[in-house]
Amino acid sequence: MKALFITLMLLSFPVLAAAPKLVNLIFELEPQGKIPFSVIDDDGCIANTALQKIASLKNLVARQRSCTTFTELSDAGFGVTQFSQLNLVVIQKIQEESQLNEIDEGIDAAFLNYELDRADEDNDRQHSVREYYQLDSGVNLHGWMLRHSGHYDKQDGQQGWLNDSLAVSRNLLSMGSVLKLGDGNGSSDIFSSNPRTGVAIYSDDRLLPKGKRPVMGNIQGVARTAAEVTIQQGDRILLRKRVKPGQFSFKDVEVADYENLLMMMVRESDGTITVTTIPLLVLPTITAEGNTKYDFFVGKTRPELWETATSKPYSQLTAVYGLTKTTSAYGGYLYGNNYFSGALGAGFNLRQAGLLSVDYKGVRYRNNRDEDKYGDAIKARYAVGGLSGNLTTNIQGSYYPNSKYLSLTEYQETQTEDPEYPFMSEMYAKRKYQLEVNLQYNLPKGSLFSSLSNSWDRDQSRMTTFNTGLTLLHKGVSYSAFVMYMKGSSYSENRIVNLNVGIPLNIFENNNLRLQPGLNSNNGEITKSVMVSGSSLRDSSLSYNGSFDERYDQTSVFANYQYSAGDTTLRYLHAPDKERINYNQTGSVVLHSKGVTLGQRVGDTFGIVCIEQSPGIGIINQIGLTTNSQGCAVVSNFAAYNNNRVAIDPVTLPAGKMIANDEDIYPADGAVVLRKYQLKDIPQL
Predict the structure, then answer these.
(1) What do you get for the CA distance between the two ends of the chain, in Å?
(2) Statement to judge: residues 134 and 263 lie in one domain
(3) Where is the signal peptide (predicted)?
C-alpha cells in the first residue's frame, strides 16, 4: 500500500510569540521519494497552498479556511504524532478510504468483568456490613458470543447469589441482523420493552450504509481542562474520547437503543465530573427508503422479575418499512397466554421540521378475575433539532381512550394482585393522558437541559414533574444550577434548587485543585455545602475530594485511582449518627491468544492492544492506561460498526521511535479486537 508521510520540522529561532513559524515539510511518496519545500505555520495551522499539492488533501483543504489544523487533518483520516522533545510532527495517512468499512469480527477470547464492593457502617444502634459482588463474563468463539451476568449480595443476615442473565448471540452480518438465544429485553420501538427469555432475531440499524443510519447529528460540549468525555446510553458506552480544553463536538453519534436518553459525562483533569442529558434526535419508527427493520421473538416472560408471577409463553413480531424517503409504515403484534396486542402506525421525516410518528395499539386480555377486557392507546412521538444544531427537542405523548389498556409488563404485574385489592389495576385504569418533553440547548460556554413530565387521570388528578439544569464556564470558573419541581393531586408540592460554583485553586504545581461552594434549597429550607476536589499524576489518574454538607451535618472524603489493571475507590463518611467506610474495586481479566491481560472494566465491544516488546507505553484512549510487561493493554470500549482509533502517547515511546502501522479499527458489535503495533525509526530530514 502506498505510504504517505508528511514530516514537519519546526525551526527554533528567536521570534515574537505571535509571529508565524517557518516549517519544513517533507512528503515521502513511494516510489517518488522525498519532495521538500517550506510553508508558513501560524500557530499549528498549515497553509493550504502547500497542502493542495497533495492529491489526497485537495478535497479537504477546499473546505477549510486559508490553513488546516492538525485536528482537521486527524478528522480526515490522518494520524498526527507530535514529538515535542524533538520539535517534530509526523502526519501519516492511515488507510485508503475503501478499507475503512471492513468489519472486524474479532478474535476468540474470554473475559471476566468484576465489581467488589464492601461497606462498613456504625450507627447509634449497631455495626453493619454489606458486601456486593458483580461478575459479568463472556466467551467469543468462532463468531458466537456467550454472555453471563450474576451477583452476590450479603446484607442484614441475608445473602445469596442471583443469576441475572445468560444468553448466546451471533451477528448475521450478511442479513444486517442479530440472532440471540437466552435472556434479554424486548424492543421498545413499538411496544413497551419487557424482560424475556427465548429465541430472537432482529435487525441492527448500525449495519446500514453510513448515509442511512439514524444518527444524533453533532453533540457539543465544553471542557475546562484536558478531559475525558464519555457518551453513554443505558449501560452501553457509545463513545469515549480525550479532548482539549474548550468547546468540542462529535459528529454523527449513533444510538444503541431508542428507549434511553444519552448521558454525556465530562471528567475534568481535576477529577470533577459534569453530566449532561441529551434527548434523542431519532425515532425508532422511521427508517431509510426500501429498508425493513424487524424484531421477531418466541419464548416466555422472565418470572423472577415479577415476584410471584409465573413464566408465560409469548411471541412478538414488529416491523418498520421505509416506503419513501420521507414516510415509513410500521406495525406488529404481541401474543401470549390470555394476552394479545396489535399495533399500526406511520412515521414521517419532515426534514428541517423534524421527525414525527403516530400509532394505534389495541389490546385484549383476561384478568385475574377471568374477565375479558379490551383497551387501546394512541401514541405520538416528535423529535427535532434546530438553531444551527444547538437545540434538540424530543416530545412523546399518549392518550388512553378507555381505562382497560395494559402493556404486557403491566399485565404481568396485575396478575400477581389479590383480586380483592387490585391496586395496580386501579392505578393503570385511571390513566388518560401522558406527556413527556425533553430539550437540550448548547450555549457558547455551556448547556441548558429541561424535562417536563405530565400525566392527567380520569378522576381529574394530575402529576407534574419539571427538571432544568444549566452549566456555564467563564474564565476558568464553572457555574451550575439545578431546579426540580414536583406536584401531584395526592402529593404535597416538592421544590429543590441547587447552585454551585467551581473555582480553580492554583496553590501547588500540577495539583488541579478546585473549590466548589454550593447553596441548596429544599422546600424553602436553605443549607450550604462545600467541596474541594483535585487530581494528581501525569494523566490525572488519581482523583480525590473532600466535602461537607450542612443539611445532613456530614463530612465525606473520596479517592479514586484508575490504572491499567482496574479502578479502585475509597469513601469515608462521618455524621453525628453514623460513620461509614466504603471500598470498591472494579476491573477485568481477558484471556486471548497473546496470554492473560488485566484491564479496567470492559464494555460490549473492546480491544487488546499489543506494542512489540514495549511495556509502559501510554494509551491516550482512557485514563491511567499503559501497556503491561508483555507490551499489551485492554482498551475498554470501542464503538461498534464505526471507525475507532487507538491513540498511543508518543512521549512514552522509546527514543527515536514511532508507530509504523497505525490504522482505524472497525469492529462488529460484541467483538474482542486484537491489534499488534510495530515500531520504526522516526523519519529524518
Answers:
(1) 23
(2) no
(3) 1-17
